Amino acid sequence: MNGRFLLADNLENLIRRTALFGILGIGAGFVIITGGIDLSIGSVVALAGCMLPWLLAVHHWPASAVVPLLLGIALCIGLAHGLLITKLRLQPFVVTLCGLLLYRGTARGIAGDQTQGFGVGFESLRYLAVGTPFSIPVPFLSWISEGRFSPYAVHPFTGVRTRLDPITWIDIPMPFLLFLAIAVAASIFLNRTIYGRYLMALGRNEQAARYSGVDTDRMTILAYVLCSVLSCFGGMLFALEVNSAQPVDFGNFYELYAIAAAVLGGFSLRGGEGAVMGVVLGTALMQVLRNAINMLGVPTQIEFAVIGAVILSGVIADELVRRYAAARRKVVGA
């Protein structure tokens, strides 16, 4: 294990990135559970991330007006996706692919292809992305990070031994708390409410759900609205974290990270299966993979190859599990 992986700064950054991408993953999960797909997540992230500093720093709008406005725009985006898919019977792939291009182009047009930044202000708002409300103690972490369980660090050139503190304090970033709140709310929604059961039923068999009295159109629209709103919220947090947004590449391929995290976490691309805890674990694994690529000195160009392999592995595993379950049912029925 690379000793830098267990450094406090690296773990804090890993937790923050897991939280930010996890919010997008939960949004993607809502759509995937209905059997749909949303390819516009990254472009919604870019639109929200560029419009936030553009309205706050350039046009001097108050944050109390900008944040609800952007969330309202995201709600309308999700509503448009849902209506096109349910009323016009367009394929989700086509609708959201067009959205990917449309929202990216809108962000670039609004910003004039110029980087939008917050400057030195808006500290209270930026606290949502970069704040650390509290820290937790982790015993012996610094000892393990040396590659062996030792209370001493040895300088690689001079050989001087330095005693390490037995307790390492890890800052818990604010985005992680927001992510936990969203994850808990999403889990309760999916597992403890009738609407969550409706989404599951819709993904398993839309026609059967409709015959059972479920308003499948309304549930599909709800899934796309939730995905767009969470993408918008995540986009604002991403922009606040880096203090700026470049419309050309901000949020590029973030939909892939979101979909990969959901699939890796157990969401079936066929719909009807998935758990929020799986998204949490899937997102964490994706970020650990990205971090490992950097730590091990592997060329970052293969990062997307890793993501593609993860998605493909999830699809293959889903198909094998489906076939195994079908074979078991056949044996039991016989």
Automatic annotation (TrEMBL):
Membrane-spanning intervals of the chain: 14-33, 39-58, 65-84, 90-106, 127-145, 172-190, 221-240, 302-321
InterPro entries noted in UniProt: ABC_transp_permease (IPR001851)
The entry's keywords: Cell membrane, Membrane, Transmembrane, Transmembrane helix
Membrane-related topology note: Multi-pass membrane protein
Molecular-function GO terms, alphabetical: transmembrane transporter activity
Subcellular location: Cell membrane
Domain of life assignment: Bacteria
Primary location recorded for the protein, binned into one broad class: membrane
Cell membrane among keywords: yes
Pfam families: BPD_transp_2
Gene Ontology CC terms, in alphabetical order: plasma membrane
UniProt name for this protein: Sugar ABC transporter permease
Organism per entry: Sorangium cellulosum
